Known about the structure:
A: 311 residues; mainly alpha; 12 helices; B: alpha+beta; eleven-stranded mixed β-sheet; 13 helices; 19 strands
Amino acid sequence: MRSFLLRRVLLALATLWLASSLVFLFLLFLPGDPVQAILGLEASPAARQALERALGLDKPPWERYADWLTRTLRLDLGESIRYGKPVGELLEERLSLTLGLVLLGLGGALFLALPLALLALRFPFWDLALTGLMALLQSVPTFFLGVVLLYALAVHLPLFPASGFPGFSSPWEALRHLFLPALTLALSRAAILFRMARGSLLEVMGQDYIRTARAKGISEGWVLLKHALRPASLPLITVLGLEGGFLLTGAVVVEVVFALPGMGSLALTALEARDYPLLQGLVLVMAALIVLFNLLVDLLYGLLDPRVAYA
Amino acid sequence: MLLIGLGLGLAQPRGGELRVAILAEPPVLDPTASTSQEIPRMLYDNVLQGLVKFNEKGEIVPALAERWQGSPSSLTWTFHLRRGVRFHNGAPFTAEDVVFKFNRARDPRSGHTHPEYYQDIQTVEARDPYTVVFRLRQPNQDFLFNLARPDSVIGPKGRVEEQRTQPIGTGPFRFVAWERGVGVRLERFEGYYEPGLPYLDRVFFRFLPDPNAQLAALRAGDIQVIGLGVSPEAALVLQRDPNFKVVTGFTTTEITVGMNNGRPPFNDLRVRRAIQHAVDKKALVEGVMLGYGTPIGSHRSPGESCYEDLSGYYPYDPAKARALLQEAGYGPNNPLRFTFTLAAPYPYERRLGEAIAGQLSQIGIQARLEVVEWATWLSRVFRGADYQMTIIGHSEPHDIGIYANPNYYFRYDSPRFRELYTRYLRTPDPKRACEIMKEMQRLLAQDAVNLWVMNAPYIAAMRKEVVGWWQNQPTPSLNVTRVYLSR
């Protein structure tokens, strides 16, 4: 177990280094100019040079890279070009919202997918209807789903706020603001989880031990819950491991539609403003989240499947 | 008189919070540190004021100066300051703040925006705490106009770095907070010098970059005003809804199809003139903008002083355009081809660009459309002049001077224009200067430097209880000094 964890941590660090270095490289090839974006159209050349010097953008790329690497190793993410604030501070403000959104979205997706998959297996009519609905949900782009929900449940039926986020100081208000965005994310991710769960449940239902259980005279519903659910959830966990990245990219879209001040919308701003330090900090944190998420999924796998041993 | 004044004061219900959506977040909150137009939109006259300011019609009226006079030679200007004014931090406003401000503004190394506005100031002195005297090197026709611009707002002396993120001024509202990526909060300044103003308790400018999100937020009541850039079709829908109203007026934005005069194909005057005749501006106003906007024919807007209407200078005439192209060596076997670069974030300009490309194709011109991000547009088109044709709105008021700069991205190099512009600046007599201003507009049209499509409309939408919103944008400013919520 210990050597497994050590290996995983080293791998995680390598992943993070590679991801953020790649971003650094991409940004070098991306046209664009953070300085002009800050000073505006009519800035004088003198003002431009002064700001470039102040931001360290006049140095050659390899020097900037070395600076960035040594700073990051000291856990200092530098200062945002656009906001003139420490990147760490900006991320801290935004992290809680995006994490809340992603966890609610993931929880919601599981909460929708598993019971519905069980329902589909138990009643053939539901099976057809649900499979069709999920296929539809899977093919609808997330932003479109978000706009539809926004107009349905915030504008026409003013049940929920249409945009923005008041902060976590009042949990009830925070939840009300997060409900629609999380629902959008949950619906868009539930489709794939539903199909996966349904498929693996079907496979498990053909196994010998299920026949044994049925032969004992246990009711069909109980067979599903007691004997089929746990082995059938293993492939689901594997898919879940891939969901981390999808959830974060989904969060970017959802945050833009609902004007939420999370990491996704910050990433978009950072890209548009060519805010290199901020963008690299964001990639670093997002990559770390995905790595951590995958590690948790692996550990969960071991809990559910007694045949897995960590070596 | 006093009774009438009191009566008016009582007619406007005081209090309440106004939530206004704007499309973009500025990089800083100081109009003397960045020329981003979003900064004055939120803060000009609401929080930060100068000696003089623009009113809703674009006239120059007193702000921190009660009165002023220029000497007959226009070389000495004396400003008498308003007494008893305080900054939001409690410090008294005196001539020293003015002197500090303009000494910084005219120093090209200070990083102040547009040092060229102030380069003719030789000295600025405080004669006493409430009198400031400017001495100019040479007459400058735009001196007073430049003092009314957002760049000329005055903060407490010695305060430069902090102004970028926590602006302190003398206006009716006090800056409270800038929530990064979310919005800017203001609240009523109790010590404001105009009695009874402002009416609102709090103002919240929210950044909502997506037009759909803006409309949804307006309908859901999250915001009460979309401050600018409402699409024409949304305006038509909201106009019919009894809960909302749409405010439209003029801006100082010239929507300009920029042509690179320094490289083929647009270094050929005949080709540039062919483009002018090939585009039907009236059809663009009607078809693309649903009737919002006014065709123009040079780099000046109808709401500005000394405007010369040149919108008919090149009448829509496809046959003439074809003939000009033939003269320049283009024809059916050798069609005119170029890349037309659109900037992603500006919806009006993008739609117009697509429609213009369609009109050009009617006479066999092949414009290849490419859409680039804003940051790319800035570095490639604006700084590098690495483009053939583009379209963008030039929103600064009174900015015809950009054509006197041969390195500007149009790459228009005209000694005659530069000479006219200098003469205009150095002419103290306003009447005479106006004549020269009109001559400059005509010269630009003659040279067909760019295709000036239209004066962009100002379209704002709001809930019907919002009263007193500015109808025009003579300068970028969502002025909320006299806005109130009717109960």
